[in-house]
Amino acid sequence: MYFKKIVGQKCYLSPINEEDYEKYTEWVNDMEVAAGLIFASKLIGPEAEKLTLERLSIDGYNFAIINIKKDELIGNCGFPKLDQLNKAGEVGIFIGNKDYWGKGYGQEVLKLLLDFGFNILNLHNISLKVYSFNQQAIKCYKKVGFKEAGRIRESKFIAGKAYDEIFMDILDKEYESVYINDIVGKKLQK
């Protein structure tokens, strides 16, 4: 069961349902999906994934990404690291269902997360990390407004090749709210 916490045009963000552990286990063990993520080298079985989802559903601000038309799970996203004192957060996004790759879902999910992070969590800086081989993700992040803030050179080795770890960020003043300001504006007009 999913709940429409933050709603976009193509998808919505819902609290994570730990009963989706079998679907996630399939995705995290698909090397094409996992290659750019921290768990690519890990062997993850159903029980371990269920425990991970239980933790994610309780700790912090983590969401399932749901296709709005089909009510279909396509991945998850959230804020794995928050520093409320300094108004900073790190965002992560994972689209496991490859049928949704390259169709604008990542951009919409990031905009939903940025709206939530800047307008609800009152963050000032939101950052992310990406490996240099993941050009599709880098292009997506730039379209949303993220800028490169730095990199660790040749820190990721895959198949004998070295890749940079790129740090990107966006400030609240660089982002124009798309979703949450509309909701608040409608409430104020009544």
Automatic annotation (TrEMBL):
Q: Which UniProt keywords apply?
A: Transferase
The lineage's top-level taxon is Bacteria
Mention any Pfam family matching this sequence: Acetyltransf_3
List the PROSITE patterns: GNAT
Q: Name one GO molecular function term.
A: acyltransferase activity, transferring groups other than amino-acyl groups
Please report the stretch or stretches of sequence annotated as the N-acetyltransferase domain: 11-169
Which InterPro entries does this one have? Acyl_CoA_acyltransferase, GNAT_dom
Has UniProt tagged this entry with the keyword Transferase?
Answer: yes
Q: Which SUPFAM superfamilies match?
A: Acyl-CoA N-acyltransferases (Nat) (SSF55729)
Coiled coil segments of this chain: none
The name this protein goes by in its record: N-acetyltransferase
